[in-house]
Amino acid sequence: MALTLTELTTARDALLRARAAGVRRVRDQSGEEVEYRSDAEMARALAALDSEIAGASAARPTTIHFTTSKGV
Length: 72
Fold this sequence. Notes:
The protein is mainly α. The protein has helices at residues 5-21, 39-57; strands spanning 25-27, 33-35. Strands 1-2 form a two-stranded antiparallel sheet. This is GpW protein. It comes from Primorskyibacter flagellatus.
């Protein structure tokens, strides 16, 4: 199940707050708890969330133009 942009942003914000507070255990919106072993692991998780947010935020094409040619 893919997360919405809002869910991704909320998860990133919660992880960022936990990291800034020095907390390594985070509970997500569904109640699942994740404990990170190190700050580096949290940094990787934040980078992954940032990447997913960037992908979800990218503009999607609204029009597709096809070009065809007759092979001779």
